[in-house]
Fold each of these.
Amino acid sequence: MCGIFGVMDKRRQMMDGSGIRQALSIMNERGSGEGAGYAAYGIYPDYRDCYALHVFLDNACESKAVVDATLEQWGAIEHDEAIPTYDQPNLRAPCTPWRYFFRPDPSLAPGSATPEKDVITNLVMQINRASNGAEVFSSGKNVGVFKAGGAGSWPEAVADYYRIEDYEGYIWLAHNRYATNNPGRWERPDPFNLHDWSVVENGKITTYGTNRRYVESFGYTCSNFTDSEVITYLIDLLVRRHGLDINLAIRALAPPYWEDIDQMPKTEQDLNRALRFAYGSATMNGPFTIVAANPDMMVGFTDRGKLRPMVVGECGDCLYISSEEAAIRAMEPNVESIMMPAAGEPVIGRVAP
Amino acid sequence: MMVKLVTIDAKGMHYTPLNQQVRRAVEDGADEVVVQNVLGQRFIGDGLKGDATIHVYGVPGGDLAMFMSGPTVIVHGNAEHAPGNTMDAGKVVIHGSAGDAVAHSMRGGKVFIRGNIGYRGGIHMKQYEAQRPILVVGGSAQTFLGEYMAGGLLIVLDLDGAMKARGIGSGIHGGEIIIRGDVDDACLAAGAKKVPLTDEDRRRIAPVIREFAGDFGLDPEPLLNADYTRIVPASARPFAGKYTWE
């Protein structure tokens, strides 16, 4: 199951986290109280030019020393501090959430079209792969993920633990986890983030192994054994490194069936065949609804067989994507339009330039 | 005799106390229960017996009227997934649209939806002797309509001409799907076949269409005289050669 929610204001008007907290809590039945999380864009205007690294530290002394050393090797730390947290009666935190505002050194990725993001990607992989008591769980400019897993991690408890109502963003994603085949570790729930992209997913990718091997062959390391981690890296690979338009990237990840491709006009057939051949190992099967965001857009799409729900709402400048209509109405009672897009029809909302 | 009416304000209420209140009202002899400010509460009317009418104002959560046996539930708004799930008898009337898997495994009674439904409408509806469930959709249905259908009657009126369903009747081995207008052969799944709607079929569905039109204030005449496509199982064992070897 799982419940997911995304909201974006096309004119970058800021929303505090109280609305999405309420929306997610309406879908408590979709979770099992073992994980929830939020991602927000636009929350760190004072450090808008720095990459905000959110890190779970097992130990604020030894684990932090390793992170500090790694960061100094890749650039300069502008500022760092503990992420403010507020104890909740039924939530037991096994680690300390910390944040760094960091300037990567672009000269360390010569020949790259996006050197800063390559540096960030490398250092995130390096820290997370090392399993030395530190895990970077978000790493973008002016964006942050707040999440918790394990017993007692209901949406409200996690929101209150981080007091997400104290943050203001123009895109928010949220996820309420129904733990299935992995134990509920603190760092495991969605959202997953790698610099620009954040992902929440309701589903179960049956092609996880194939997709993971594919994305790891491009230098990513999947250390969390979770669908959303692989999806985040796949989107980064296809959009940033391969330069695919978001429409094509989604089409590569969730392509039309061969029999549907056969019915298309010739040029469209050729394009879709080429995409399926080129990205066969990136194609995701199994039931899923995914909502992803970067600083400029929010997108939602489902698996081709439509085995998970996705409801889309619009009101004024706001676009909502949700597992259930009631959650949209909890946040915006006057929502103007509600629709359920067909499988394979991505919903793409872009922030006004 | 005076109608006994009970009103419940569901604002901010979890579904457990809400459903306990609905159940108690019906047990105490209420003829009509009006539930206001519903927002996402699941399981409303589940397992309810008797002949009360429940009016739901707002958007109820999933599995509305699951296992219900007798009452009428009228939703003044949209519904989420699987209204009428394994419903036994009674009636669900939805004035808006509904999500995926509408009338999932339904075994009796009626589900009428004025708007559209999502994917897998009527999945595994079934019938046994006098138990014959009926699902009627005013708007459009999505892909895998009547998937694994084992019995009952499923009518889609496609009033807005927006039907895009493919894979219709995937694995159908009982019951019938009747869709207003023509359906392209390419939209039928393996195991389903089109047959002409006979005069006898038309007489059989006329009372259902009249009742549907009456519930939503529609003119029944154009619907009674329209062209329909009837889809039935090609065989009682559509996957005989797929999963077994004899």
Amino acid sequence: MSYSSNNMSKAEGRSPSDFDTLTGISLKPAYYQTILNTLPAVGFFEIHAENYLSKGGPARHYLHRIREQYSITVHGVGLSIGGEVSLNQDHLARVSQLLDEIQPTFFSEHLAWSSHDNAFLNDLLPVAYDEDTLQRVCEHIDQLQTALKRQVLIENPSTYFEFERSDRSEIDFITAMAERTGCGLLLDVNNVEVSCFNQQANPYEYLDAFPVKAVQQIHLAGHTLDQNPITPLKIDSHDEPVSGLVWNLYQHTLTRTGDCLTLIERDGNLPPLDELLAEAHVANSIRDHVRQERINELIV
Amino acid sequence: MNSSFKAALLNETDDFSHEVKANATEEKAVRLNVYRNNIFMSLMDALADIFPVTQRLVGEDFFRAMAREFIRHHPPKTPVISEYGDELPDFLHHFEPVQSLPYLADVAALEHNLLMLTNDQEHSTLEHAEIAAAFDNASDPSQLRLSLPPNSQIMTSPFAIGSIYQAHHQTPMTNVIVKNSEHLLLSKSDLYGTFHIISKDESVFFSALLQHKPLENAVPNSETFDLGATLAKLIEWKLLTHITEISVLKR
């Protein structure tokens, strides 16, 4: 990358504007102590809601300490808004209480389902793109936004197959979902690469058609390749650095969205925090460049 | 549709494949299998995190095979995975391949209880000086009610589960006589669930304190019980939250 560099070692004096200009990182227990000891220059930390719903213990303790220093965004992975069954009201109440306590800048969830018949399957399972599903998803998003008293962001999924019964594209489905509910969108650029690879589609065409007006946050993550002999698939594993392909897609995305709040998302095979800070720094450089170009356009 | 999707993922049935767009049956299976794999691998990892000693006792390969069976029959009921596995001890109790390890279910129960304590709320406890003052100011110390943190609990097992647990956290592992029964006091220490191996008399005494009995009624009827030494342990373990004297009138 040939973009100008920021001072990465800024340890103190975070200002509210850092949230808007500096990229965020997934908060993981392995990083709690390093974060508190070094106060790295990070725009925000993102947590998975479901890991922070306990009444006590280290997760809750460290979250509150880190919240004193940083903005937080909350990412739900268990509300199952794409599910055929009603939202789990007990779980929703616990998430709502967490948001009241933490006052995150954004709350996001997935266009996916995970709960059915009293079982939680711990994965983000795909939904068919048809009218019945759209109506159900929109009702769930309405309920979510009412219960949480805020706009929520919904993330485009990483998928490993398409449904025979789908009668419209993912883009059409997401566009209608955002229009009907007024929800914001979280554009996961890695999911775009993964899904398009798995469906033999062009990720640039996907990004060019994406309803970017509603996008308020971007996720960047790593994926792995399953080289099975029948049909190679990209797996949204979050256990590798962001790939070169995804960095290129990210730059392309920002030409459409302009500068946008960005997260380096990492859930497994955790490296030292410095490696994630370096990835966040790359994103910062790209974002700085986009902001500068916008300014230049205004001047000209 | 999600009923058949879920069944296909958990039970590996084929009733769902007509929903999957693909050129061939094998391709449908490969695509569906990514989700199945995500579910089982993530939940096996979660169970290994929650039950590390149980895993060490049976070995990783066996544990994962056993976990797969457990997940198929007892998938999580809520999205909070750190609360998963409460049914594992009972599952192990009836799981034929581990009947030669009769203590395994109790060790798993201990691990799950400790994690639940870790996730439960903390309670502030009394300092030495406050405890000394409460005893000094009591008109009748036998009428003092000593309160432990309310999430403290007693576990009793016919096996030496506390010693087994401790041995598997030490290197090299020490030998444990597994057929010795043990009483444990589980509680929170700072942010984490922890336990102490206690005597049968202490178990009776702590149970009575947890039932809010005053000292006079809590002390077990046993010649070997040493009240002073037991109180010293409670103070050292920082497990007293309140000391109140039951008023004479209320008696």
